[in-house]
Design brief:
2 domains; four-stranded mixed beta sheet; 7 strands; three-stranded mixed beta sheet
């Protein structure tokens, strides 16, 4: 079994550590006896290409300390881990940094006033002359809970709704016309 770990220039940036398991079965002359005969040639070939070979037997516990030492040598030192990593130029995009919070009040003329950073921004950016944009805005009102809040407050078709600088007349949904 070959396990690839670490980094080094010798192998295109990758250090190869070859771990050969079941060595107890090879030595016992079982099904893997033929592998035992090939072992010396295999080890010489790995030595030539600079690959470290560790023979282990999990069952017998043989070679495990040697494997731990080779793996530990591939890990960064405590000093290296203590250093902050180099910036990788990663840009973090935070989605929905504005909360969906809002407040509903009544203006002196009876119009509903909705306040909230996110809904005010959405209202200003919406082109209400485009049906798809207006429908998306309505879905935002439903998703944010504003539609339900206005209905609990008693809004009726024809009532004025102000969101930031935008003024809208409340219209019933198509299914409410009946």
């Amino acid at each position: 079994m070959e396990v690839v770990v670490g980094h080094a220039e010798a192998h295109g940036g990758i250090t190869h550590l070859c771990v050969v398991g079941h060595v107890d079965e090879i030595a016992a002359g079982g099904e893997l006896a033929a592998a035992g005969e090939a072992w010396p040639a295999f080890r010489r070939a790995r030595d030539r290409d600079g690959t470290t070979v560790v023979a282990v037997s999990a069952e017998a516990g043989a070679g495990l300390e040697d494997l731990r030492m080779h793996l530990a040598a591939l890990l960064p030192s405590i000093e290296e881990l203590a250093e902050p990593p180099e910036p990788a130029g990663v840009v973090v995009h935070r989605l929905d940094t504005m909360r969906d919070t809002f407040a509903v009040s009544r203006d002196a003329d009876g119009a509903f006033r909705i306040r909230g950073r996110r809904i005010e921004r959405i209202a200003v950016q919406t082109d209400f002359e485009v049906e798809e944009s207006a429908a998306r805005f309505q879905r935002d009102l439903v998703r944010m809970g504003i539609d339900a809040h206005l209905r609990r407050e008693g809004i009726v078709p024809g009532d004025m709704v102000r969101i930031g600088p935008v003024e809208l007349e409340w219209e019933p949904e198509a299914w409410e016309d009946a």
